[in-house]
Design a protein that fits this description.
The chain is α/β, with parallel strands linked by helices and 219 residues long. The protein folds into 2 domains: 3-116, Rossmann fold, CATH 3.40.50.2300; 124-217, Winged helix-like DNA-binding domain superfamily/Winged helix DNA-binding domain (Arc Repressor Mutant, subunit A). Helix content is 39%, strand content 21%. The protein has a 5-stranded parallel beta sheet, sandwiched between helices. It has a 4-stranded antiparallel beta sheet with strand order 6-7-8-9, covered by helices on one side. Helix 1 (11-22) packs across helix 5 (105-116) and helix 6 crosses helix 8. It is elongated and about 55 Å long.
Length: 219
């Protein structure tokens, strides 16, 4: 699971690609202008940014230069410009990867998986929540031969905490990382998700509530 900001003014293209990425349990926030993207970045954290070279209110290169002053998430540039000099400019401006339009959404999904496998990232095959093993490929949690399948949002919440096992997160931070910006996530939504995870795993301590501080992964 990754929280992805998709910055591209081609609405149909964003919707089509986002549908493919959502099937891999990613949370996608679309932005059709640089101004929209900057607003979303100010209120939410992202694991990856997909960025088109041409935007209505600026260029992707100028946006990328701005973003590298405020954030460090990997950026995949999308463009119809395929010369070596164009690629060089994109990479030198801070892009981590580069895809020439038109491209396969399956290839985009594969490149995102490759970014998530980089050093410093927890491999999906090693993802644990206490004694529970998480399998993002089918949204299941298993322990001692017993397996439970969680709904996508509940699994995404547990997965995010499992990837950051020693950190305490305030409720608004968790909602910004696990729910899309367009969703109507509330404190009650988060509490309900936590309650359901505990109930389904028969473990009240799997997610700890830290009074006055937020939530963290339990045992």
């Amino acid at each position: 699971m990754a929280k992805i900001l998709f910055v591209d003014d081609d609405v149909d293209h964003v919707k089509m690609a986002s549908a493919v990425l959502a099937r891999e349990n990613h949370v996608i926030d679309p932005a059709y202008t640089a101004a929209d993207a900057k607003h979303l970045i100010s209120i939410s954290g992202y694991d990856i940014i997909i960025l088109d070279w041409q935007l209505p209110d600026t260029t992707g290169i100028e946006f990328l230069k701005w973003y590298r002053g405020v954030g460090s998430a990997p950026v995949i540039m999308l463009t119809g410009k395929g010369t070596i000099s164009d690629r060089e400019e994109g990479l030198d401006s801070g892009a981590d990867d580069y895809m020439i339009k038109p491209f396969s959404t399956r290839e985009l999904a594969a490149r995102i998986r490759a970014i998530l496998r980089r050093p410093g990232k927890t491999a999906a095959t090693d993802l644990m929540a206490g004694a529970y093993k998480l399998d993002p490929s089918n949204l299941t949690v298993s322990k001692d031969g017993s397996e439970v399948r969680l709904p996508p949002r509940e699994f995404a919440l547990l997965e995010f905490l499992a990837r950051n096992p020693d950190e305490i997160f305030k409720g608004d931070v968790l909602m910004s990382r696990v729910w899309s910006a367009e969703s109507e996530a509330t404190t009650d939504s988060l509490r309900t998700a936590v309650k359901q995870i505990r109930k389904k795993l028969n473990n009240d301590g799997i997610i700890e509530t830290i009074p006055g501080a937020g939530y963290k992964l339990g045992k």
